[in-house]
Amino acid sequence: MPARCEEHGADRDERPTDLPRFLLSPRQREVLTLAGQGLTWRQISQALGIAPGTVRGHIVRARERLGALNTTHAVVLAIANDQIRVETILLKESGDEDSQAC
Fold this sequence. Notes:
Layout: E1 4-5, E2 10-11, H1 26-36, H2 41-48, H3 52-66, H4 71-80, H5 86-101
Antiparallel strand pairs: 1-2
């Protein structure tokens, strides 16, 4: 049985399901999209020209806003709540296949 949050009277294990589109910042959406493509924090930091600690901060805040348990869960929740588009993740993967075929 999930623990109850006395202050709000809700189960702590409940996760938001109808998040507003503006919930994540553009940078948080960008970082989660790159994480969904399989990039590490270091690779994301190099791609965006920011420090790895900054990437970590964006991911941590995105996870908190989404109520996610980990980065993968944050990506799934962001996709499910129209925060990021699965097509942007798949485009990276299909682009990699084309470059490997040459």
